[in-house]
Prior knowledge:
11 strands, disordered N terminus
Amino acid sequence: MAKSKTSSKTESLSLNVNELKDFLNHIVVNNRFLQENGKPPVSTEVVGDSGIGKTSAIVQLAEENGLDFVKLNLAQIEEIGDLVGFPIRQFEVEMKEDKTWVDEHAFDEYLKLGYKSTGKNRMSYCPPEWISNKKKGGILLLDDWNRADVRFIQAVMELIDRQQYISWKLPKDWHIILTSNPDNGDYLVNSIDNAQKTRFISANLKFDLKCWGKWAEESQMDGRCINFLLMHPELVTKDVNARSVVMFFNSISSIKSFEEQLPLIQMIGEGSVGSEFASLFTMFINNKLDRIISPEHIFSQDEKYVLNTLKSLVGKDKNYRADIASTLGTRVSNYLDVFAKTNKVEKTIIDRLGKMVTEGIFTTDICYQMIKSIYNANPSQFNLLMLNKDLVKFITK
């Protein structure tokens, strides 16, 4: 298949998953405004490496907006009719001043009802199965669309232009989103010409460690695994993508003692994320870094024990572990963000944060990022931070 450089417009709009969802939410709202004013809605394309979370972000968008969701993987569809419907002959019938087109299989029934044929007929298309009986409000995801046969790409252009195909149309408040892999030589894709590119808005989805860390906390992923990736973000590449990393982590999450199952973990790792990733992970375990205190224990266990544990983990002066300190700061802020969504934030939590800051465990930069992030995520729940003289300076700084 032909290759070309990635469109410059996709290079200029690069978003993390949270920014992407904000962008797509705006498109949904704006499309409703356009349709209310008799204008066609705007379609979008999300470009990104495989396994980066394109599809899952769009599924979340549909769920959060209460929209129906249809996903068609165009690279796996063989019949064009599965996308746009199959041709069907129609006949025009009339009764008094009423004229209408009816499908061939219903023609005799209309004649029995008193309709008469006008003698006109045409070839039309019946709606495809995926849209039949669908009501107002939905997202049509055309997945891996630039991997599809050129016939499907041309049909997609027709759908994007008018949200209809010859004789059927999408219901109101339906939004078309395309996903694709970059046309940069790393993927076997069709090049999309400028005439096609100007029919939709494109955005590049990039992997963002901060977004992943918060998602992992919300998903209750094994904290040992979260710690590892926060300390080794460089391991996420186009070859070892976020999807394969999560698959590896999920595959070992039932193991209570990583240290006792190192050969098994190495084997699972080599089969999912490769030998380099797996070896670094086993090294992480051998160095006992999988035993880093969890955010939950930081706020639930004895204060003296917690502070001493943090100090021994982070170290100081020449032995200061910036990677562990940064990881702990990120885990704490993400944990409290998730915690505050379903629990009341008591003064004991604020006091524990104050102790962590005043004990000099973390650098000023990490304290600033941690406290600022906690407060900005949920100001109403963490309003007590403003009353703590040791913490308020990090919010107002």
